[in-house]
Specification:
It is globular and about 45 Å long. It is built from nine helices and eight strands. 37% of the residues lie in helices and 14% in strands.
């Protein structure tokens, strides 16, 4: 579904979201905040799922619309479970947006490598726990970084107990996001659910995500890129918003339409061969279930119609 080049899609074309509820992880800044703002302004009730409630409340006050703030630390599965246990109503839209990028080597509260644990496992657990309430779709934010190098899932060392390469580990976590969407959609379809799983990536967008890179050289390069090469966070949020509000088939992947998918209006984009492998997607799902102790909920089709 290509976008009409004469009428590039933007946030003013979001359909009326009145009566809908959306959860946006990491909504206190960057493209998460911009997505939350746009959805709220279109009429949705938006839940800011954030690690720092004070920062989340400050961000929510900038939004013209209905919001609430709830604590969620994706690097702590007990926090994920607490968030999900407190949810008791229909949820139209779950946007798995939060993430960390190329950070120094560190561990989550559960002992997982931080980037894989936060970007993939935290959202994997959250989605499975909330899925019985989801009525429309799950959108997971990936990245063009899933293509970096000979990117693959290193099942023999997911927690990077050997050599740690912040860039490669980040790319693996973004590849995991796409494989997660692929297998989630397969399971939803198989169960007869009408819920859809989709992915999006923001291209090269100027946010504070890049400021935490482990390498000083990388931080300097990205500071330069943010200023002179990147699109702003409002534009970076458009692929997420497009995936969240437009009629697209399950497992779709949305990104910018410009050169190298770095910037531009949202459109359907391709993914690497590694990100399209159903066997690897199933294996990753099984491993993720074992690591998080969460499962695809039985009977989800009866609650998602």
């Amino acid at each position: 579904m290509a976008i009409d080049k004469q009428q590039k899609w933007n946030a003013t074309r979001i359909p009326d979201q009145a009566g809908r509820t959306a959860v946006v992880t990491g909504a206190n800044s960057g493209i998460g905040l911009r997505a939350a703002q746009a959805l709220a302004e279109a009429g949705a009730h938006v839940v800011f799922a954030v690690r720092d409630v004070e920062r989340g409340e400050a961000a929510a006050r900038t939004v013209n619309g209905s919001t609430e703030v709830r604590r969620l630390d994706l690097a702590d599965l007990s926090s994920v479970r607490e968030f999900a246990a407190g949810w008791d109503r229909p949820l139209d839209l779950l946007i798995n947006n939060a993430g960390v990028m190329m950070v120094p080597q560190q561990r989550t509260a559960d002992g997982f490598e931080m980037q894989f644990g936060t970007n993939h496992l935290g959202h994997f657990a959250l989605t499975n726990l909330l899925l019985p309430y989801v009525t429309d779709r799950v959108v997971t934010v990936s990245s063009g970084a899933h293509r970096w190098g000979d990117q693959r899932i290193d099942f023999d060392d997911l927690n990077r107990t050997s050599a740690y390469d912040p860039r490669g580990v980040y790319g693996q976590s973004k590849l995991a996001n796409l494989l997660f969407v692929l297998e989630l959609q397969r399971r939803l379809t198989e169960s007869g659910s009408k819920v859809r799983a989709l992915a999006a990536h923001p291209g090269y967008s100027a946010t504070n995500l890049q400021s935490h890179a482990a390498s000083a050289a990388a931080r300097v390069f990205m500071k330069f890129g943010n200023r002179f090469l990147a699109q702003d966070d409002r534009a970076g949020a458009l692929p997420t918003l497009y995936a969240a509000t437009q009629e697209l088939p399950g497992a779709s992947y949305v990104g910018p339409d410009g050169l190298g998918e770095m910037r531009g209006a949202p459109t359907l984009v391709g993914r690497s061969t590694a990100a399209s492998d159903p066997a690897v997607a199933r294996r990753l799902w099984t491993v993720s279930e074992e690591l998080t102790g969460t499962r695809f909920p039985q009977g989800v089709e009866t609650r998602a119609t």
